[in-house]
Amino acid sequence: MDSPIEHQQGNSEGGQDNASHHTNNQTSTPVAQSGEAGDALLSEQQLNSIRKLLEHLDKTEMPGLASMGYMEAKKLIQQLTAEYREQKNKPAPQNATNLSDIPTVQKLRERAKSLNLEWGTVIAEAFERPIQQGKITKQALIDKGDELSPDSCQRIASYLQAKQAA
Q1: pLDDT in tens, 81-102
Q2: Is the domain of 84 the same as that of 27?
Q3: Please, which residues have CB within 8 angstroms of residue 49's CB and are 6 or more apart in sequence?
Q4: What number of CA atoms fall less than 13 Å from residue 113's CA on the CB side?
Q5: The pLDDT value given to residue 30
Q6: Calpha distance 118→109 (Å, rounded)
Q7: Which of 90, 113, 142, 156 is the most buried if burial means most Cβ atoms within 10 Å?
Q8: Domain end residue (candidates: 89, 122, 142)
């Protein structure tokens, strides 16, 4: 009886072809699926990657994202990744490089009061986009009190500076 193993061992050239053919089938299947996926919907991994990139870029999720095609999603991921790398490689603004340059929450509250702005309004407007995106709530920011992060303080300081200039 001639088994596949005996056949492969008996004919090394045929065995190599069979092994090679078997390996090619295994590796070409995902490639074929990827190639054919131009009409297929994006994968869950692509969707998660796009969402994370949009979050890091502080962009809102575009409508119809979940119904995007595989290849369209691939191109979008490449574009967003390039934007993210560009943003990441930009030097930090001079005024944000030193923590001692960032005003404390107490100073920010005083500055808001001098501009006749309520603290809740300052928080709501300075963090308008993250609040709309559901990343944080106004109440959560207010509840942090004097424990706001340096990034949050910098954001509020920039907002107050714009208000003062207006």
Answers
A1: 999 898 888 765 554 446 677 8
A2: yes
A3: 77
A4: 6
A5: 31
A6: 9
A7: 156
A8: 89
Name which of 92, 122, 85 is nearest 107 in CA terms.
122
Q: Are residues 11 and 80 in the same domain?
A: yes
SS3 of 98, please? coil
120 and 69 in a common domain: no
Backbone angles phi, psi at 41, to 5 degrees: -75, 160
Q: How large a percentage of the chain has pLDDT more than 90?
A: 23
pLDDT for position 39: 65
Domain boundary among 43, 67, 89: 89
Q: Are residues 75 and 125 in the same domain?
A: no
Cα 46–Cα 136–Cα 81 angle in degrees, nearest 5: 30
pLDDT at 26 (0 to 100): 36
In our burial notation (b when 16+ CB lie closer than 10 A, e otherwise), range 69-83 reads ebeebbebbeebeee
* pLDDT reading at 157 higher than 60: yes
Contact 126/142 with Cβ under 8 angstroms?
no
Name the residue with tokens 């979008």: 76
Provide the domain limits for residue 31. Answer: 4-89
